[in-house]
Amino acid sequence: MQELVKINNLSKKYRKNSFYSLKDVNVTINDGDIIGLIGKNGAGKSTFLKLITKAINPTTGSIEYKGQNIHQADNVLEPFGIMIETVFLPYLSVIDNLNFYLEIHNKTEYKDNIKNTLNLVGLWAHRNRKPADFSFGMKQRVALAIALVTEPSFLILDEPFVGLDPVGVSNLIDILKQWASKRQVTMIISSHQLEELESLCTRYIFIDQGQLRKAFNKNVALMEIQTTKLSDDLIKTLKQYGQTVEYNAQNNKIVISKDISQKDLNNLLLILTQAQVINSISNNNSQLKGFFDTEKG
Ligand SMILES: Nc1ncnc2c1ncn2[C@@H]1O[C@H](COP(=O)(O)OP(=O)(O)OP(=O)(O)O)[C@@H](O)[C@H]1O
């Protein structure tokens, strides 16, 4: 996969703080990645997204988009669709907001997209109303329409599910899935709603106290095995299964990926059964929840 964004030793210390909100982050984002950005409150997620969208400058380090340092180049954000802070004007109608947005960004060639975009986010029927009178979820959808109207190939969404009811959340996921299925698009979505992220994302970036703790691909788990403490020999054996089998020594959990071959799966279960180390076997539905548990422990 082609490298799209390269983040090099990125750090940010806000002027009035004595601490770094982001410290020495190095990560690469590939074309087509749908990234879930996760981390506790205050971890640095919004800071990370604001740096990528040039809303703020790094203290040190750089962000390259297709090889260009975004903070040193002009017009580099052209292919970006951004939903970070409220960008619409509450007392202009929805349709006027979109027209206005396209005009001030010199992107009037996308005016023909307005109808389709508003249909996609379910706001076409409300196009002549003003967002000031909208519910929170409808306001979120106005912001999303603004992010999508220029058909961005790189979409950056900060907590898009916050404040939406379950129907709103599932509609938004459908919209994003539909969007991604129709075009080559890269997304970064920050959220605390792990289940929602898991239904969308192909990769995750976990930030903790301003540091990138882990960047990892979605590992579609087939099952999770709770074991007793494993011997070094058994741990060595597990390593032979490569990425399809992950063992966490902290909580004695083995996660088996869906990619494992039938032969390997049978072998592995036989070995574990003979060693009499299995406590329980379950379906592992949430890679992220398990990951947070591990981090706490
Ligand atoms: N403009 C600012 N000035 C000073 N400090 C800031 C500013 N913005 C964020 N911070 C601080 O930087 C740290 C990271 O904040 P950030 O908003 O990036 O976290 P977050 O992971 O997005 O949190 P949340 O999940 O609560 O939205 C926090 O300690 C926060 O107080």
From TrEMBL:
Keyword rRNA processing in annotation: no
Gene3D superfamilies: P-loop containing nucleotide triphosphate hydrolases (3.40.50.300)
SUPFAM superfamilies: P-loop containing nucleoside triphosphate hydrolases
Organismal lineage: Bacteria, Bacillati, Bacillota, Bacilli, Lactobacillales
GO MF term (any one): ATP binding
Keyword NADP found: no
InterPro entries: AAA+_ATPase, ABC_transporter-like_ATP-bd, ABC_transporter-like_CS, ABC_Transporter_VariousFunc, P-loop_NTPase
Pfam families according to UniProt: ABC_tran
Keywords: ATP-binding, Nucleotide-binding, Transport
Domain ABC transporter: residue ranges: 5-234
Protein name: ABC transporter ATP-binding protein
Domain of life: Bacteria
